[in-house]
Amino acid sequence: MPVFALVDCNNFYASCEKLFDPKLVHTPVVVLSNNDGCVVARSAEVKALGIPMGVPWFQLKEAAKQHGIVAFSSNYALYADMSNRVVEVLAGFTPNLEVYSIDESFLDFSGFEHLGYAAYGSTIRQRVQDWLGLAVCVGIGPTKTLSKLANHCAKKNHAGKDGVCDFTTMSPEVLTALFGKIEVGEVWGVGRKISARLQSMGINTVRDLRDAKAETIRAQFSVVVKRTVRELRGVSCLALDEVVPDKQQIMSSRSFGSRVYALQELEEAVASYMSRAAEKLRGQESVAGAVSVSIRTSPFNPDEPQYQRSVTVPLPEPTADTRQLVRWAIRILRRIYRPGYAYQKAGVMLSEIVPRHLRQASLFAQPEREGRSDGVMQVMDSINQRWGRGVLRVAAEGMDKSWQMKRGNLSPRYSTEWAALPVVLAR
Amino acid sequence: MLEAAPSLGVPGIFVPLLDAPRLALPLDGMKVSAGFPSPAGDYEDKRLDINTYLVRNPVSTFFFPVQGDSMEGAEIFDGDILVVDKSVRARHGHIVIAFVNGERLVKRLFRRVGRVALVAENPSYPPLEIQEGMEMAVWGVVVGKFKRLSY
């Protein structure tokens, strides 16, 4: 029987911020999304204040003053480094591990019965705490879906103890009672829409869903939901995806720091996003056969005139050359741009992605030019790798990037940049 | 590199793979050539890496620059960068990074007979007794230091 553990960092972004800053030990801390928009992470103190996830920061200014809440912009460099360290520690505990997100990993516990799953989970939890100063919860179950649910129970203190919850050693009666108390929306893969539909059918709790008739589910929902039900019953349908499959689409989009009106600024933004996307594309040794560009005004300002447009263009020849991709993106942008609007967001997408060595040559292909292009891109990537991202870039990206995202209160890159290391006082 | 051609689909027929991954084999220091082989060939060692000297457990190691002169007795000077290993359990006598009253400090940990204190290595700084109700958290143990000189 397979056994899975889901290890999840508690309040990950907020915990990373607290880890290095001694002034924050008991301070309520939130981390904001891009452009300092909404709350995307809350420390325990903020949760205790009853402030929910996703609130726009400007709505919290009053509460922040009253409770001394400190807000940080998302410091991705810091979170990524800490996340990699957590994964490295976890990898010491199992030969098979799937990094599910920046703060969650599935671990294969199959064959570890003699160690005691819960005891092993506690060891992991203690290790991450000791070595990295981050708190994690561990959920253990015979399927990925159940391990995720067990993790939820550990975190919310519904079951298990000290941040570890092991479904495999709980009796069927106990589990049934527990599942009867958890809302169906907490199940992995059951989003808001599906849970609303389930509730309209009288399926309110995890127990209801687990015990739902297979025919009913099959008739009303996709195979995904059906699979979820099987997993809730303890039949493992999802294996660990150890190797992340290459992305079939690469997207790069962001909101602007302030509204953008001019075509030239949009062009710079689109060129920058495309450069980033092209870099990712080359990183997975692929080429793209289609380019999309989208722009839009802010849907949250209904008083402003609204406009949004997205266009996809197939390329004559699949490529990973930043210069060509940027040229195409700008060509599309000029076609969809309308003056007079306050643009809030732009994005690019690469699709029709195939591995570079499978690229199909068209009738008009010029292999010798492709070879030269590959060479130029290799040089560009290695220069940027060595001297920092964006050191060498296409001129279309512009120089001052006034449209760039706002990150008003960014903490230092405590662990990844010499100039930003945290100072200790010898006094 | 050879691989069964998927397009041919004929078992046992192998064709060279386009764009085959390169396998780079290191050439040993000794060439197959006439003349006397290098007498040092058998004694070749890897070049020394300062990382392996200073860092025992990279995953739990962080760096902290020092500001101040209170640890000079322990040869920790202003501007040194400390190597801090969080996986080492702090014991009496260790030099540690501690969070005290909103400050990040480097001190020697004193923990004996029910007394906890953070001790400086410079007579002009008195020891900091950790009293009941005071908050002190040891962040990690200092296991080394380094510094780059201007030249």
Offer a quick outline of the entry.
The complex is a heterodimer of chains A (427) and B (151). By secondary structure, chain A is α+β, with helices and mostly antiparallel strands. Chain A is 38% helix and 20% strand.
Describe the structure.
The complex is a heterodimer of chains A (427) and B (151). Chain A has 427 residues and is α+β, with helices and mostly antiparallel strands. In chain A, 38% of the residues lie in helices and 20% in strands. Chain A has helices at residues 12-20, 44-48, 61-67, 76-91, 117-132, 144-156, 172-179, 192-200, 206-210, 214-220, 223-232, 263-283, 322-336, 367-387, and strands at 4-9, 29-32, 39-42, 70-73, 97-101, 104-108, 136-141, 164-166, 250-260, 286-297, 308-319, 343-351, 354-355, 424-426. In chain A, α4 crosses α5. Chain B has 151 residues and is mainly beta. A 7-stranded antiparallel β-sheet of chain B has the order 3-4-9-5-6-7-8, with no helix packed on it. Chain B has a two-stranded antiparallel sheet with strand order 1-2. In chain B, a hairpin with a 2-residue loop joins β5 (95-100) and β6 (103-112). The longest helix of chain B has 5 residues, at 50-54. The two termini of chain B are 50 Å apart. Residues 1-9 of chain B have low confidence and may be disordered. Classes of the chains: A alpha+beta (427), B mainly beta (151).
